[in-house]
Specification:
The chain is an alpha/beta fold. It has helices at residues 13-24, 31-39, 43-64, 84-93, 103-112, 114-119, 128-146, 158-173; strands spanning 2-6, 27-30, 72-75, 95-100, 149-152.
Length: 174
Amino acid sequence: MKIFLIGYRCTGKTTLGKILAHHLNFDFIDTDLLIEKHLGSTIIEIIENQGWGKFRQIEKQTLFNIKNIEDTVIATGGGIIIDPDNQQFIKKNGFCIWLDADIKTIMVRLNTDNKNRALRPALTNKDLFSETNEMVKKRNPLYKNTAHIRIDTSFHTPEEIVNIIDRRLKDVRQ
């Protein structure tokens, strides 16, 4: 079984993915880290040097290359669902969990994690709040369309969220 984690920045995909993978005795893959390792460049460097279009092509190929793996939790980049082919791939090739959070929570997380600014390229030329608000509104329908279930990560600890996911997975497996 593959479990895909989708959602906007700072909703917990990587943090929860690692904990969930350990809990389930699965492997863990972060698609952004896989891209960086394969190309020897950061996401910001790839986008600065090759542009968003090329990055989205690389992201798609990375996703499609993991088709044959099993027993893995996969944390995806927040924009992976922009491409309808990626949406279909995720829905057909695993169980998809949309990790969601309210704007206030996302903003607190973005503003309190110093590495976020250094590692996350701007998506627009707007200020962080306006960009986040706009992108969440655009992407939420895509996350909803792609996911099998939605989990709000705003008010629970990572361990509580993993327990919620585990209960939901048991329902699916039966």
